[in-house]
Design a protein that fits this description.
single chain, Immunoglobulin-like, TIM Barrel, 6-stranded antiparallel sheet, 15 helices, 37 strands, about 25% strand
Length: about 725
């Protein structure tokens, strides 16, 4: 045995080899051209037998640490064989040799990944249950370019990194090993030896499923077994331009929408949620559900925004197939699904992406670039092609494997600016001396180009709170390429206005009208999201001034303003029935309120009716992103704190006129400007008694008076409800 081979065997025994296939498995002997040797390293075995057909041969223990080998004379071609090993614990295992298989990842796959353009990367990296040469097993692959050695750990090898050492594929940085006999639902991790000699245990970045926290191992899983029923929905999705359709989004945190009444500590499963949430959302008239992150995360209180498993649906609520059932059920009931997605940062948990191979692999080495000081998390290195590929493929993964309809990209502002939440001197300018993160900007353009190129009907939304130019403009027009952007300015101004006592609102009238100066600069979604009802901000209802009746009247008025204003709509769960308490992720919403008081019941009925009117009225959604869909009728009635505007659809002769009164006074015979003469009928009133209002209304149609009023060429006379709004439509 040559000195070089002895050194190679030592590296295997000390689990410090980048290519164990050079030693283990079948090898033709160089000095005996008609003979071969088979080697296996089994540190837990007392004896190993080679089995080929009916023939059994005991292998020789050549190293005390557990290296077994056998020389086969007159053998020059590989053949089918198995091992039978007797272990120290008295068990006997029969298994096939992982080191008899050729590399399976093609050079082209490696090239695409290293170039950042392997958009189906999730079909290659990670753990995939497969069959090679007629043998069933699982092929494991992981990217760890700076590792000295990588192994697969699991129950199948006593979590011993010496047993299943992987090989690196050229200069790609990808390590691979096919382990025969490994099927679904096997926990596993990767053991990585860094260049400094540290041994790390890491979950699979491409895991499809994981153990329930606080455990952190990945699970082998076949996600291709679910039988979908939403073909009609997917086919029709492309025939409905989403920007010209109604969009009323119900934002949901799955762990706290409802819990088991018999055991409030127990989460509902995905199937239970599908059978309760979907009928509820359908009855309430919402068009979409937006789910706060369902990707695997260790801490419940992070709400899912500190992700450790980007390709794994969280095991808190069930399996991947059960989550697919939830999506399928939504589609079968005409409801789209948007997932919150977090490519902006990731947590520092030791089993996840942080210093994955002993180096700053997914993050930056410099903490001024790689660490997020506000959240205690790490920022992705978007300039590294493989990292950008990991994220772009992840976005496509949810659209492909889970049939979701869109992604809401979290914390885009933190991605766009290098100085985000950083004091002066604690950030690194870009090469041109600016604060824009050029690599992140290019990543977002790449992301949106690929997503919309492959899924033209997708919904990709930016949660972006600055005035960065062109967030929802196409990339070829200088934009970032998102389909929509959250209108955080409208949200802040509007909630600030509603928090004022009505007597003072006339001094803040511009807060209502300012949003129309920029309302069509982006494709806006108007959010009243979870962020506005936590951390001492109070619930929407509790933000409102006045006695209980006034609080509910104000909340109804706020929601009418949201639904009538240009832009798509988003409301966080609980707002639809006027939850008193702040949202807390560890408990269910206060559904008992619907049984205790008519005001909550009226609020609930109000939102359901508002959605019905909204969806039946094209003027409220056909032209949301152009001045052609909006016209001021009167924005100058400061003393009465009243605004009036018209919404118009493609049929400009069918306008809807909205009047909103932000004080408790009732006004009779009030001139309401309308854009064209004719006969107008009230189609909605927030003050209806069925909603808990006082009943001030306009039940009879009104004829126009051909005299200008405000910005309108003519007007009708109406009764104005207290802290209320009405919508009228030309008959």
């Amino acid at each position: 045995m040559s000195l070089e081979l002895l050194r190679e065997i030592d590296r295997i025994i000390h689990s410090d080899h980048y290519d164990p296939f050079g030693v283990l498995g079948f090898h033709v002997l160089e000095h005996q051209s008609q003979a071969a040797v088979i080697r296996t390293f089994q540190p837990h075995a007392t004896a190993v037998t080679l089995i080929a057909g009916d023939e059994r041969r005991e292998m020789y223990r050549t190293r005390e640490e557990g290296l077994f080998e056998i020389v086969l004379p007159n053998c020059t071609e590989p053949f089918d064989y198995e091992y039978e090993a007797a272990f120290y614990d008295g068990t006997i295992h029969r298994y096939r040799d992982p080191y008899r298989f050729l590399p399976q990842l093609s050079d082209y796959d490696q090239y695409l990944f290293n170039n950042g353009t392997h958009y189906r990367l999730y079909e290659k990296l990670g753990a995939h249950i497969t069959q090679i040469d007629g043998i069933n097993g699982t092929i494991f692959r992981v990217w760890a370019p700076s590792a000295r050695r990588v192994s697969v750990l699991g129950n199948f090898n006593y979590w011993d990194g010496r047993v299943h050492q992987m090989r690196v594929l050229g200069s790609s940085g990808v390590w691979e090993l096919f382990i025969p006999g490994i099927g679904p639902e096997e926990p596993y991790k990767f053991e990585i030896r860094s260049q400094e000699g540290a041994v790390l245990e890491k979950a699979d970045p491409f895991q499809f499923f994981a153990e329930l926290r606080p455990k952190s191992a990945s699970m082998t899983w076949d996600i291709n077994t679910y039988h979908w029923h939403d073909g009609d929905w997917l086919a029709d999705r492309g025939n409905r331009p989403v920007h010209e359709q109604p969009m009323a989004i119900y934002e949901v945190h799955l762990g706290s929408w409802r819990r088991d009444p018999g055991d409030p500590a127990r989460f509902l499963t995905y199937r239970e949620i599908a059978d309760t949430l979907v009928p509820y959302v359908k009855e309430m008239g919402f068009t979409h559900i937006e789910l706060m992150p369902v990707m695997e995360h260790p801490l419940d209180e992070s709400w899912g925004y500190q992700v450790t498993g980007y390709y794994a649906v969280t095991s808190r609520y069930g399996t991947p197939q059960e989550f697919m059932y939830l999506i399928d059920t939504c589609h079968l009931n005409g409801i789209g699904v948007i997932l919150d997605w977090v490519p902006s940062h990731f947590p520092t948990d030791g089993h996840a992406l942080c210093r994955f191979d002993g180096t700053a692999l997914y993050e930056h080495e410099d903490p001024r670039q790689g660490a997020h000081p506000e959240w205690g998390t790490l920022i992705f290195n978007y300039g590294r092609k493989e990292v950008a590929n990991f994220l772009i493929a992840n976005a496509l993964f949810w659209l492909d494997k889970y049939h979701i309809d869109g992604l809401r990209v979290d914390a885009v502002a933190s991605m766009l600016y290098l100085d985000y939440a950083r004091p002066d001197g604690e950030w690194v300018p870009n090469p041109y001396g600016g604060k824009e993160n050029i690599e992140a900007i290019e990543f977002l353009k790449h992301l949106n180009t690929v997503v919309y190129g492959q899924y033209p009907s997708a919904i990709v939304v930016a949660e972006e709170s600055t005035s960065f130019f062109g967030v929802s403009k196409p990339v070829n027009r200088g934009g970032l390429g998102f389909g929509f952007k959250w209108n955080m300015g409208w949200m802040n101004d509007t909630l600030g206005y509603f928090s004022k006592e009505p007597v003072f609102r006339k001094y803040h009238h511009s807060a209502l009208t300012f949003s129309l100066l920029y309302a069509f600069s982006e494709n806006f979604i108007l959010p009243l999201s979870h962020d506005e009802v936590v951390h001492g901000k109070r619930s929407l209802l509790e933000k409102m001034p006045g006695d209980p009746w006034q609080k509910f009247a104000n909340l109804r008025l706020l929601l009418l303003f949201l639904w009538a204003h240009p832009g798509k709509k988003l409301l966080f769960m609980g707002g639809e029935f006027g939850q008193f308490s702040e949202w807390y992720c560890k408990v269910s919403l206060d559904w008992h309120l619907l049984e205790q008081g008519p005001l909550h019941q009226g609020m609930h009925r109000f939102v359901r009716t508002l959605n019905q009117v909204y969806r039946a009225t094209p003027a409220l959604w056909e032209i949301d992103f152009s001045y052609e869909g909006f016209r001021w009728m009167d924005f100058k009635d400061v003393d009465n704190s009243i605004i009036v505007f018209a919404r118009l659809g493609r049929d400009q002769g069918d306008p809807v006129v909205c009047l909103l009164n932000f004080t408790p006074q009732v006004l009779h015979d009030y001139p309401l400007g309308v854009p064209i003469p004719g006969r107008y009928q009230q189609i909605f009133c927030t003050d209806a008694t069925e909603f808990g209002g006082s009943g001030v209304s306009n039940p009879e149609p009104r004829e126009t008076v051909n005299e200008p009023f405000g910005e309108a060429p003519c007007h009708i006379r109406v009764c104005v409800p207290p802290l209320g709004g009405i919508m009228v439509r030309k008959v």
